[in-house]
Amino acid sequence: MERVAAAVVIDAQGKVTGWSQGARLLTGRAAAEVVGRPAAELLAGEPPGGVLAAGTGTLTLLHREGHPVEVTVSVCPVLDADGVPAGHVITADPTGPVLVGEAFQQASMAMSVLDLEQRYLHVNGVACRLMGVPEETLAGRFYTDTVEESEHTRGLVRHLREVAETGRPVRYESFTGAPALRRAHAWSIEMWPLCDRSGEPTAVALAAFDSSEEFWARRRLALLNEAASRIGTTLDVARTAEELIELLVPQYADFATVDLLDWVLGAHEPPAAPESGTELRRVAHRSVVAGNRGAALDPGESEEYRPSTPPAVALREGRAVLAQAGEPAFDQWLADRNARSPEGRPYREGVHSMIAVPLRARGITLGAAVCVRKYHSDAYGPDDAVFAEELASRAAVCVDNARRFARERDTAHALQHSLLPSGLPGQAAVEVAHRYLPCGSLAGIGGDWFDVIPLSGSRVGLVVGDVVGHGIQSSATMGRLRTAVRTLADVDLPPDELLTHLDDLVSHLSTGDTGEEVAELGATCLYAVYDPVSRRLSLAAAGHPAPAVVLPGGTAEFVPMSAGPPLGVGGLPFEAAELELPEGSVVALYTDGLVEDRDRDVDRVTEELRHALGTPATSLEALSDDVLKAVMPEHPADDIALLLVRTRALGADRVATWDVPSDPAAVAAFRQAATERLTDWGLEEIAFVTELVVSELVTNAIRYGEPPVQLRLIRDGALICEVSDGSSTSPHLRRAHAYDEGGRGLLLVAQLTQRWGSRQTTSGKTIWAQQPLPGT
Questions:
Q1: Residues 6+ apart with CB under 8 A from 688
Q2: DSSP per-residue codes, 83-110
Q3: DSSP secondary-structure letter at 70?
Q4: How far apart are CA 356 and CA 258, in angstroms?
Q5: What is the torsional sign of CA 284, 288, 290, 291?
Q6: Which residues, in sequence order, are CB contacts of 567 under 8 Å at separation 6+?
Q7: Is it true that the peptide bond before 250 is cis, omega within 30 degrees of 0?
Q8: In the structure, what pLDDT confidence band is assigned to residue 713 with cuts at 50, 70 and 90?
């Protein structure tokens, strides 16, 4: 853009005697309007003093349209023939408009202004360089006359018209070339209207930003995302290598190869020490040229790479290696290709860039991938090296997975088999049948588990859970959670409280030492407690399907309860549900693998499960088989655990309950009552021990607890003595000193009985002690 000087001549009286074209453009005033008038009338406000004397300064002019124009002026005095000052010449530098013009010209992006008919009005320096012609050549010409006909050209013209017609800015993205460029670039183009004072568009401005770097970064990211679904679809080494090659050519390379070490193809364990040589076997290759004419090896053939060539360096140093035509390593590699396969030489002419990247998984080098460019005009750069390493690492994991799959699956089966209960103990509270079926998925077995846990008071804990993920990691986590549930159940926590503690444990594991202890850590669990005395079932779930209940002679119904959040979410409560069951009810607990499958409707399958559970069967074992036949998917994608329990009840003939007054003198009466009940049950042999236990527990409850106090004897597989009171303070064993008057009661109970313990209740606590029955 050519700058026009703004100059004015003022005589000794301060009147304007000269007015330049630049002054007219600056103020909007013609010379006829200004010459002969006092210069002070052109100013917005009073003139600052000292400008004429100083020879420079800043003035604010009044534009013809009424707005101020700030300028920097330089003053030069004019002398007459006698050397007497006769006036001044003042030149003005309109800093704002000039800087705007300079900004337009010197912008780092291509900028143009076109009229409403798409004729060039102004073009900045970058746009001229892209077009390969000076501004004078473009001025006044239609845009379509200066470029080749293409989809990009038609799209740009369409958007220019849209801006001119609507007066709204538009963004347009395109991938195209330019007359002065050797290759196509990605462009992000902004177009906006230039309007007059009335708001009507008079021209259209556009700025084109070269977004090629962002474009190629997005392309690389898209390839990485695509790799997640396209590489590793099978557990076959050769097919995985082919999938990698198919992804690379032609999007990223004109020719690509995958070569592996021999031990990888044999699915053996890695050698104890890294191999010193660089002999690799070709597994897959692909070219944009049909028939892979430029390949020096066929699949199955091997070659020892020279130590200085890029593939050998990549293997040795464990990083991506770039090489360009003219570099010694590149030329040596190409010469070796031509020497091994002279017939492919014509197809290698013009190859200008390559990248070799090691295939490493879990710290072990498996082989190398090589990408070559001939028709892609861009050479590989540092960003490509980062991309290649990321893609190669993903592909290498898939290759290594295929090699390790069989051994890991066998190991996981053995581990899970050792962790699941091999045989469930006999229970007076319930009859049990169970099934566990590992999935047939290539992902490996999952982390499903189940358990039946004897609790105090002849109660029983029922557990079924599922750890997210598959393989050894999930199996190991399943074992840890199963152990944790057993430990928490032994404390006699209610179901909702137990799940809260288990949730804390899972959250701790997921943020523990390495964060790798629990694969994709997350798990679901359902915990239930059945009491054969009250015939009540209490249960809570952590993201797990609700169980189904089949009442005697009735149909199956699912227990209405809140599923709760999965384990590991943390901070959310679990809700307990409770229901009373008649004796002979069947409760079905299961994992989601039984009903969930990508090819089946969950609601329909759940209804099939309900119907199958309600179908009469000769036994729980037969019912388990019938349910699996009716509901199990043909090809299970997840493990399946099914636990069926039929409830039993302890009648009044096996339970004795007494309310105890808060009077220590009453203890003797309850000792006697307990002895009489044992006589009725034929358990005179253990009456003496039972008297001592009753005496100690009831005395402690009266002395240290709070009313109401209750004594209960339960005759089951063992004799259980329970004393409940209203205090939540739990007792504990302590060593009594020689002269202590108390402190020996619980120690005596612990010595005389098989097991003892305490559990919290909704109204206080219960202390219990268990003795074996005579002859057991």
A1: none
A2: S-EEEEEEEEE-HHHHHHHHHHHH-SSE
A3: E
A4: 10
A5: negative
A6: 481, 499, 502, 503, 506, 522, 523, 524, 525, 542, 543
A7: yes
A8: very high
Judge if the upstream peptide bond of residue 708 is cis by omega within 30 degrees of 0.
yes
What global pTM score does this model have?
0.51
**What's the average model confidence in pLDDT over 227-237?**
86
For residue 552, the surrounding DSSP H or E stretch is: none
Kindly provide the b/e burial profile for residues 449-463, where b requires at least 16 CB atoms within 10 angstroms of the residue's own CB. Answer: bbbbbbbbbbbbbbb
Concatenated DSSP letters of 465-524: EEEEEESHHHHHHHHHHHHHHHHHHHTT--HHHHHHHHHHHHHHHHTSSSS-SSTT--EE
Cα 646 from chain centre? 42
Query: Would the pLDDT of 281 be above 70?
Result: yes
Among 654, 649, 650, 630, CA closest to 640: 630
How far is Cα of residue 641 from the mean position of the Cα atoms in its chain? 28
Residue 517 has pLDDT above 50, yes or no: no
3-class state of residue 426 by DSSP: coil
Mean pLDDT across the chain: 84
Distances (CA, A) of 602 to 84, 632, 633: 106, 12, 11
Q: How far is CA 146 from CA 1, 116, 133, 325, 734, in A?
A: 20, 17, 10, 36, 99
Q: CA-to-CA distance for 378 and 254, rounded, in angstroms?
A: 12
Q: Which residues contact 190 (CB under 8 A, 6 or more apart)?
A: 169, 170, 171, 206, 207, 209
pLDDT tier at 292, thresholds 50, 70, 90: confident
Letter for the amino acid at 98? V
Query: Which residue's structure tokens are 């070709």?
Result: 282
Q: What is the mean pLDDT of residues 286-304?
A: 89
Q: How far apart are CA 259 and CA 387, in angstroms?
A: 19
What residues does 523 pair with on adjacent strands? Answer: 467, 567
- Give the pLDDT band (50/70/90) at residue 635: confident
Closest C-alpha among 434, 458, 444, 765 to residue 625:
434
Place of tokens 């209610």: 494
**Mean pLDDT, rounded, for 41-68:** 78
Work out the angle between the directed axes of helices 602-613 and 620-631 (0-180°, nearest 10): 160
Coil, strand, or helix at residue 81? Answer: coil
Cα–Cα distance, 59 to 68 (Å, whole number):
10
Cβ atoms 485, 542 nearer than 8 A: no
Rounded CA-CA distance 299/253 in Å is 19
In this predicted structure, the answer to whether residue 734 has a pLDDT above a threshold of 80 is no
Query: What is the arrangement of strands in the sheet containing 6-11, beginning at the earlier edge strand?
Result: 16-19, 6-11, 85-93, 68-79, 56-62
Buried b (16+ CB within 10 A) or exposed e, 186-222: bbbbebbbeeeeeeebebbbbbbbbbbeebbeeebee
The CA-based angle 582-588-592, given to 5 degrees, is: 155
Terminal-residue alpha carbon distance, the chain = 109
Instruction: Mean pLDDT check: name the lowest of 185-199, 419-433, 499-513, 708-722.
Output: 419-433
Residues in the chain: 776
